[in-house]
Amino acid sequence: MASDGSDEFKLVSPSISNEGRLPRQYTDEGQGAKKNISPPLEWYNLPQGTKTLAIVVEDLDASDSDGPVVPVTHWVVINIPPTVKGLPEGFSGKEEEKGGDYAKIKEGNNDWKQPGWRGPRLPTHGHKFQFKLYALDDELHLGNKVTKEKMLEAKEGHVLGEASFIAIY
């Protein structure tokens, strides 16, 4: 059961309310050790038959300097075992260190062509960041270079459920 008492498949963050502000430590505008930390995430009520989970975090309001709005990918995470109930704050880059079921998780490249979480640094604020979780009926086998595009293509026909929330920065 979700924290609100419903049976709905749900993605939440204990640090960010839906449509709430993305705290500074999760951005590239934080300071020192409190900069570019991946936010904590939790999920509830996985659909029956879920064998793995995948996450994509995108800035939905990003645009080229003179072009159309094109979402920018800040984080891709695949092959999260259903036994894992969330990712702790600062998880990005520490799968091996955490060990156990966390070691099976693979982080993909963000739009800066680096694996892991990349927090925003924006010329203007007010951008919507979508955190989206997919429940899948099979693991994804994407090789060494995981990207959002590869993940989205591979998940086709395997999605049992989707859950998301928006953070504003």
Automatic annotation (TrEMBL):
<dbReference type="Pfam" id="PF01161">
    <property type="entry name" value="PBP"/>
</dbReference>
<dbReference type="InterPro" id="IPR008914">
    <property type="entry name" value="PEBP"/>
</dbReference>
<protein>
    <submittedName>
        <fullName>Uncharacterized protein LOC101496790</fullName>
    </submittedName>
</protein>
<feature type="compositionally biased region" description="Basic and acidic residues">
    <location>
        <begin position="92"/>
        <end position="110"/>
    </location>
</feature>
<feature type="region of interest" description="Disordered">
    <location>
        <begin position="89"/>
        <end position="119"/>
    </location>
</feature>
<feature type="region of interest" description="Disordered">
    <location>
        <begin position="1"/>
        <end position="41"/>
    </location>
</feature>
<dbReference type="InterPro" id="IPR036610">
    <property type="entry name" value="PEBP-like_sf"/>
</dbReference>
<dbReference type="InterPro" id="IPR005247">
    <property type="entry name" value="YbhB_YbcL/LppC-like"/>
</dbReference>
